[in-house]
Amino acid sequence: MLFNVLSLALQAVARRSISSSAVRQGNKVPHKQKLFQEDNGMPVHLKGGSADALLYRTTMVLTVMGYVVYELVKAAYPQKKE
């Protein structure tokens, strides 16, 4: 019984969000194409704005931190010489 109620509620929410989101949003593709094709000297992975810059910096920080942790673990447990 509870499963049926939850299922119906989920279907109603999904139907409402799918049908209303198409009405509110316009076609953003031409604007994005224009943005990414203009020659302003900026790399393509940063042309999306501040969210792209934040994602890029976060990825670089996590990569460097992962490499540092890897090297520290490798140095903490030296290889056995046989």
Automatic annotation (TrEMBL):
Please indicate which superkingdom the organism of origin belongs to.
Eukaryota
One GO molecular function term of this record is: oxidoreductase activity
Quote the Gene3D superfamilies the UniProt record gives. Answer: Cytochrome c oxidase, subunit VIIa
Localization per record: Mitochondrion inner membrane
What is any Pfam family matched here? Answer: COX7a
Give the way it sits in the membrane. Single-pass membrane protein
| Alphabetical keyword list | Acetylation, Membrane, Mitochondrion, Mitochondrion inner membrane, Oxidoreductase, Transit peptide, Transmembrane, Transmembrane helix
- Name the pathway it acts in: Energy metabolism; oxidative phosphorylation
- What SUPFAM superfamilies does its record include? Mitochondrial cytochrome c oxidase subunit VIIa (SSF81419)
**UniProt record, GO biological process:** mitochondrial electron transport, cytochrome c to oxygen; mitochondrial respirasome assembly; regulation of oxidative phosphorylation
What Gene Ontology cellular-component terms does the record carry? mitochondrial inner membrane; respiratory chain complex IV
Task: Give the family from UniProt.
Answer: Belongs to the cytochrome c oxidase VIIa family.
- The molecule here is called Cytochrome c oxidase subunit 7A2, mitochondrial
